[in-house]
Design goal:
31% strand; 6-stranded antiparallel sheet; 22 strands; 6-stranded mixed sheet; single chain
């Protein structure tokens, strides 16, 4: 079922540079004027629209574009001689026509090549890397190449649907594949489960493709190494697969306590049709260590801003190993934020929410800055 169409309102330039990629901002004027950004899946189609909070001014654009979930993603690049925008195919056509003039800014060229999955432009990428070598050194330039070029290429090769026997599991693990360049050699690190889900022919093709790409940068393919599943954190593979279903079940159970229906806005955001109740739902698996911590959650600045936009708001903290969750009202969360540990600043800031057991007392919110803990008994639910 497709969502209603939303209209392009403007763009935000995340880097502050005059030229380069801009984030398209949409508005659903029939519901509200709250800015929305598109969430794009691996097929480069829109899978959701998510509320957007930006400290940067939104630049309004006079372009009549309406998009719905399921449509091709919309891209926008601001350039000195006028923007290029549209679907990936639109960008590719415009890029071919303006490529000579774009070469004066190799960083913008790279953004377009990366966003639009355009192959065969190693010369343009090499110009960017050579510039970085002069400014930040070889180690930094190689780290940039690994992150922005090599790792995405490898994941794209491995992620083709016909190459995997178990598409759901592999989609979870493939983003963990990394290219690591040291001196003039590149090693590929991959979760050991992928060794069994992808056949030998696929790995050999990946090696050949990567070796050809590396040659353009004066690099060599060194090795393919598999590592254990520790990199997945404390949530098991099975839990990762089912977390989205758990979020839907949790939000539905909570909605019944309010005699309301909640619709899913994004993977974690839920809202009743009237907009009077908003919910953010997140999950943690159980920590099995010897410490007091039992569950850990991150509470994000963007979540806080979204929740404040309705009359009543809750943070739902779900536990993967049980049918239990905690429904914390926004007013309660905010009263405890000064007592929690934090990471990051601005829109990237988040608070650490630790659920702990102390002696005979269970399901306590740890307040490390006060060296205390408060019970969550009144907020506990089962689904």
């Amino acid at each position: 079922m497709r969502s209603r169409a939303v209209r392009l309102y403007g763009v935000v330039n995340p880097t502050g540079q005059e030229d380069g990629f801009c984030v398209p901002v949409f508005i659903d004027r029939e519901r509200s004027n709250h800015p929305l950004v598109q969430i794009v899946n691996e097929q480069n189609c829109i899978e959701a629209f998510e509320p957007f909070f930006s400290p940067i001014d939104i630049e309004e654009v006079d372009i009549e574009i309406a998009k719905s979930v399921g449509d091709p993603a919309f891209w926008y690049f601001e350039l000195g001689r006028g923007p290029i925008y549209g679907s990936i195919e639109d960008i590719r056509r415009q890029f071919r026509k303006r490529k000579d003039s774009l070469k004066e800014n190799p960083f913008v060229v790279l953004q377009i090549l990366s966003a639009c999955q355009m192959e065969g432009h190693e010369d343009d990428i090499r110009i960017v890397r050579d510039t970085l070598i002069k400014s930040i050194g070889m180690v930094g330039a190689n780290a940039w190449l690994d992150t922005n070029v090599l790792s995405p290429k490898i994941r794209n090769w491995l992620g083709k649907p016909h190459r995997t026997k178990h598409s759901t599991q592999s989609k979870i693990l493939i983003p963990s594949v990394l290219a690591v360049t040291d001196s003039d050699e590149t090693t590929v690190l991959a979760p050991e489960e992928l060794e069994h889900w992808l056949d030998e022919a696929t790995w050999n093709q990946m090696r050949a493709n990567l070796a050809s790409t590396l040659k353009s940068f004066g690099l060599k393919f060194a090795d393919l190494r598999f590592f254990g599943n520790a990199g997945l954190g404390n949530i098991s593979l099975t839990s990762l697969i089912s977390v989205q279903q758990l979020k839907r079940e949790t939000s539905s159970s909570f909605a019944r306590t309010k005699s309301l229906n909640l619709r899913q806005i994004t993977k974690s955001y839920f809202e009743d049709p009237a907009g009077a109740l908003r919910v953010v739902c997140t999950f943690s698996s159980r920590y099995e260590g010897k410490g007091k911590r039992k569950y850990w959650f991150g509470y994000h600045e963007t979540w806080d801003r979204w929740l404040e936009g309705s009359k009543e708001s809750f943070l739902l903290l779900g536990c993967v190993d049980t049918r239990m969750f905690f429904a914390l009202p926004l007013r309660f969360i905010r009263s405890q934020l000064p007592h929690l540990r934090t990471t990051g600043t601005g829109k990237d800031k988040y608070w650490h929410i630790d659920i702990v057991d102390l002696a005979s007392k269970k399901n306590l919110l740890d307040l490390p800055r006060l060296r205390q803990a408060v019970t969550l008994a009144e907020f506990t639910h089962r689904f």
